[in-house]
Specification:
The strands form 2 sheets. A 6-stranded parallel β-sheet has the order 8-7-6-9-10-11, sandwiched between helices. The N and C termini lie far apart (about 55 Å). The protein has 12 helices and 11 strands. The chain has helices spanning about 15-20, 25-30, 70-80, 95-105, 120-125, 140-150, 170-175, 195-210, 220-230, 245-255, 265-270, 335-345, and strands at about 5-10, 35-45, 55-60, 85-90, 110-115, 180-185, 215, 240, 260-265, 275-280, 300-305. The longest helix is centred in the N-terminal third of the chain and has 14 residues, at about 70-80. It is of the alpha/beta class. Helix 3 crosses helix 4.
Length: about 350
């Protein structure tokens, strides 16, 4: 008698970058274990990230109504159980996901969760001068979670999402892809991770002088759209796409970029999951914390000057401000960004 198909529920509810970071792990898992089925459990907005991955379904969680509170989480448990989930990989490890995996554990199912290494990260971000060393990456931590479920993943066998067709709506906006496309996502959730816009203006103006390129500005919300309009003003090969295309179409666009320039934010991880060359700019945070984009060389991570700002990194997520460190990202020169873009385009 053959063994029943293993059906793993992968829980990662937010944020966008963290959800995108699960993609390389899931791709490696299904490639190395094609006999299993995966259901990603996350918020509905992130569903397009997982389109077109074989053996992967998506289950939408509604934490503000249907799955709110203990009764809602119990309903979520029952719904996941009803679709035949046999294992839980909790890649979030917060109260909601802990409750779900505990219910499955009590019902006799196998569960595992990601150890986020909070103690090591706390040491890395202490407000004092220090020597720093790279911590385990989140990709390695997630791989360990699946190993505890019995699925050892070889991360050296890299897999990426396939490049998508360019939607007609994007071609109508910016034309076809006769030039090299540079994506620039200049915003992050926290100001400590956001490159100063006056310096980003210099970067964009310099890159726009290349007649063989198109520069595509990405963002969301009214504020970002207005700021990006200013950055694109008067530059014929610079396009502000914020608020114009859907998230799904934005993913199709990102998959066709030649280079992405991003903060330590979700757009970096969205680009990296397609294998796009990705340049990241780091302020209060640092790639050594384990959140550098997947399979990108460390040279593509431009960090603020630690000689001038020896306490860096001062935060894991950028939510902590340190007095006197407001201008740390100004130590990343526009020229260094342009030079690195040129190197990656070649």
């Amino acid at each position: 008698m053959s063994n029943p198909i293993k059906h793993i529920a992968v829980i990662r509810l937010s944020a966008m970058g963290d959800v995108a970071m699960t993609v390389p792990i899931i791709l490696a898992l299904i490639k190395q274990y094609p006999e299993i089925k995966v259901t990603v459990v996350s918020r509905i907005f992130f569903k397009p990230i997982f389109y077109n991955i074989p053996n992967v379904d998506f289950f939408s969680v509604h934490v503000h109504h249907k799955h709110k509170g203990l009764l809602g989480l119990f309903r979520l448990y029952k719904e996941l159980k009803a679709i035949g989930v046999t294992d839980i990989a909790d890649l979030h490890n917060v109260l909601r996901s802990k409750i779900i995996r505990t219910l499955f554990l009590l019902s006799g199912k196998k569960t595992a969760f990601t150890d986020k290494g909070r103690a090591d990260k706390k040491t890395l971000t202490e407000n004092k001068s220090k020597q720093i060393q790279p911590l385990k990456t989140m990709f390695e931590r997630h791989a360990e979670t699946f190993q505890r479920l019995g699925y050892a993943i070889n991360l050296k066998k890299t897999s990426f999402m396939q490049k998508e067709d360019i939607p007609d709506t994007i071609i109508e906006l910016i034309g076809g892809k006769q030039e090299q496309w540079i994506g620039i996502a200049p915003f992050a959730h926290y100001s400590t991770k956001t490159y100063p816009l006056d310096l980003m203006q210099h970067v964009i103006e310099k890159l726009s002088q290349k007649t063989t390129t198109k520069i595509l500005l990405l963002g969301g919300g009214k504020y970002e759209k207005e700021k990006l309009n200013i950055l694109a003003e008067g530059l014929s090969n610079v396009y502000n796409l914020a608020g114009i295309i859907s998230f799904e179409k934005e993913l199709h666009l990102i998959s066709n970029l030649d280079v992405m320039v991003s903060m330590d934010s979700g757009n970096a991880h969205l680009a990296a999951m397609y294998g796009v060359k990705t340049i990241t700019l780091w302020g209060a945070t640092h790639p050594f914390a384990g959140f550098a984009p997947f399979n990108q060389p460390i040279e593509n991570c431009l960090v603020s000057d630690r000689e001038k700002y020896p306490f860096l990194p001062t935060s894991i997520y950028g939510n902590k401000k340190v007095k006197g460190y407001e201008d740390a990202m100004r130590t990343i020169s526009p020229e260094s960004i342009v030079s690195l873009v040129d190197k990656n385009l070649k």
